[in-house]
Amino acid sequence: MQKTYVLDTNVLIQAPYALSSFEDNHIVLPLAVLEELDGLKNSEGERGANARQAIRSLEGLRQQGSLIDGVALPAGGTLRLEVNCVNVELPPGLPEYKNDNRILKVCLGLKSQGQTVILVTKDIVVRIKAQMLGIDAQDFTTEQAPVREEQYTGRCEVFVPEACFGDYKKKNLSPEDVYQIGPGGERLSVTLEPNEFLILRSDEADHKTQLGRFNGKKIVPLTYKKKKPYGVTPRNVGQRFLQEALMTPPDEAPLVIVKGMAGTAKTFYSLAVGLSAMLEHETPQYRRILVSRPNAQFDDDIGYLPGDEAEKIAPLLRPVIDNLELLVDQNEKERYSDERSLAGKIEELFDRGYISAQALNFIRGRSVAQTYLIIDEAQNLTPKQAKGIITRAGMGTKIILLGDPAQIDHPLLDERTNGLCYASEKMKGSPLCWQLTLTADECERSPLAMDAVRRM
What stretch of H or E contains 241? Predict the structure, then answer.
């Protein structure tokens, strides 16, 4: 049975291609949505760009026929503008002048005509209002990742027969050599993804473990396990895996996606490996380290802030500076004895061009070559932004997406719809993408931070 999907403006603002995502069903755009798109078309950043793209799509459809009567969509189904339903009554607590409530009126009007109506909106409050009115409402699910427990982590733990365990480093292992144990004690075969990290346990001695990676054909030992990039030593299994992914050259690992809670050293380790690649090699591996963070306020223009670009984004990059302070002076007792000297060391890294920082909206549209590109707080990316960044990679560039899906500040994103998790699921299985989720017990920030993880 065909359904009628009523789209909220925020769906088109985040995914302007959404009109082609509803198969052979009917799409209705309330007049309020058209007015909101018109009001956003001159906005800076992603909102304005997506509003203009959605309007261009509507113009292409308008040329096929009357949008009020309805036109056929190339991917199937129909689209029409709804200009009626103005006399539908709402409860007294929902003022009719608000666009959200005008959209709800359309849903009620179409439902009263016997149509199977579903409101699609990324606004949780609007979904709550819809439920109060008996309207079926849902998020835009085309870009959704699985629930957190089912998302790809880039790592797993397996058992190895003792006969194979000792020869692992000489002969490597095939995926058929390892197994997991089911709830009834039965052996289960394991399906491995390219570049998935493995904790290998002997099936006769549980304390005997080794680390490895599936290269797409064989399970191989870690290459950089004994390295200390910029003097940093990995403190746990997750950091050993992280070091392997970050230190692998960009021709083999051009994209690294790392998820993990605060304190798991995602940013710290990424900067350490980047500085090592720039300063500890006879010939630097990259032209520069480029650091950026998404603006959680929906990519608002930074032009209203005072100063040059670096000064405008400085507040967003303060966590990066904090990590650089730990790296440029690793003497914990003396590090802050001379704040001016410490600041001078960090300024020198920027002044000499080893590290630079840019706003995210200045990276999009460029081709970034031979660059070690760190996108911090990537959980605040939209899926379109994540795609825009990854597709900017030029030759010799390594892109690192870092973030904690549980700490999202973007008003229209959640643990399933943010760009970090979207990129993780879409790039799963790619031989060019290395992924890792760091666990809560790998938090290394401080004893207090670790204790808070356990208790809170």
Answer: helix 237-247
Q: What is the mean pLDDT of residues 364-380?
A: 88
User: Could you tell me which of 220, 156, 218, 228 has the C-alpha nearest to residue 188?
Assistant: 156
Q: Give the residue with greater pLDDT, 252 vs 368.
A: 252
State the Cα torsion 86-92-95-100 to the nearest 10°.
-70
Written as six digits, the tokens of 112 are 């009263």
Nearest Cα residue to 79 out of 61, 96, 97, 95: 61
Distances (CA, A) of 79 to 18, 52, 57, 261: 12, 18, 11, 42
Beta strands in 52-191 (DSSP E): 71-72, 78-82, 117-120, 136-138, 155-160, 180-181, 187-188
The answer to whether residue 297 scores a pLDDT higher than 60 is: no
Report how far residue 67's alpha carbon sits from residue 29's, in angstroms, rounded to the nearest whole number: 10
Asked if residue 247 lies in contact with residue 240, where contact means CB atoms within 8 angstroms, the answer is: no
Q: Which amino acid is at 131?
A: Q
Write out 373-441 in H/E/C secondary structure: EEECCHHHCCHHHHHHHHCCECCCCEEEEEECCCCCCCCCCCCCCCHHHHHHHHHCCCCCEEEEECCHH
Token pair of 341 as six digits? 């000297």
Q: Where are the domains of the chain?
A: 4-138, 143-221, 235-455
pLDDT digits (tens, 9 = 90+) for 168-222: 777 789 999 999 999 988 999 999 999 999 999 998 877 889 999 999 999 999 9
* % of the chain beyond a pLDDT of 90: 67
Residue 7 has what pLDDT? 98
CATH for 143-221 (2.30.130, 2.40.30, 3.30.1660, 1.10.1060): 2.30.130
**CATH class for the region spanning 4-138:** alpha beta
